[in-house]
Amino acid sequence: MKACLLVIDMQNDFLSRFNASERQHLFDRTNDLIALCRQKRADIIWIYQTFKPDLSDAFLEMRDHNIPNVIEGTPGAEIAAALDVQDHDRRLLKKRYSGFFETPLSTELAQIDPDLLILAGVNTHACIRMTAIDAYQRDFRVVLASDCISSPDKEHAAGTLRYMKDKMARVMANADIANLMG
């Protein structure tokens, strides 16, 4: 089975909303999944956001409420140093919740031609959900890596997983993903 791992928004500003132990657990489990994917020769794409300091390219909520988050060139916009990002990994900038919205992700995936997309990262109820739905709408089989996704909004994250489970995506722990990948 040919898989592709999408690691979404694992950036300092987003991760600062988690307590230290939850953040470390997310790093550890995500690095475990990355190691598995590297072993299985799965492509890895780091999907991240950055916005201009004046928020002119940010989405409406950010502009309307003047929310400076993941501002280009700031430490908050950087992918967390605790994660195993390698130079040969692909990187993709997005400006909205979905990794597909006005990005080259569809083109990149057409080149890779995976049988399965595995999603990891934050936030479950927003960017993970929207990317998973858009992947499903493009006929990709989707796995949400339950050990490697999280959100500070636990209620909406749980609702997202209930809504998507076994409809648009499979929700699987790392051990189950390892078994699935063979």
Describe this structure in a few short sentences.
38% of the residues lie in helices and 20% in strands. The chain has helices at 12-15, 20-39, 60-64, 105-112, 124-137, 154-164, 174-181, and strands at 3-8, 43-49, 90-94, 116-122, 142-150, 170-172. A six-stranded parallel beta sheet has the order 3-2-1-4-5-6, sandwiched between helices.
How would you explain this protein's 3D organization?
- This protein is α/β, with parallel strands linked by helices.
- The chain has one domain: 3-Layer(aba) Sandwich (Rossmann fold).
- Helices cover 38% and strands 20% of the residues.
- The protein has seven helices and six strands.
- The chain has helices at 12-15, 20-39, 60-64, 105-112, 124-137, 154-164, 174-181; strands spanning 3-8, 43-49, 90-94, 116-122, 142-150, 170-172.
- The protein has a six-stranded parallel sheet with strand order 3-2-1-4-5-6, sandwiched between helices.
- Helix 5 (124-137) runs parallel beside helix 6 (154-164).
- The protein is globular, with a radius of gyration of 15 Å.
- 34% of the residues are buried.
- The model has no long low-confidence stretch (mean pLDDT 97).
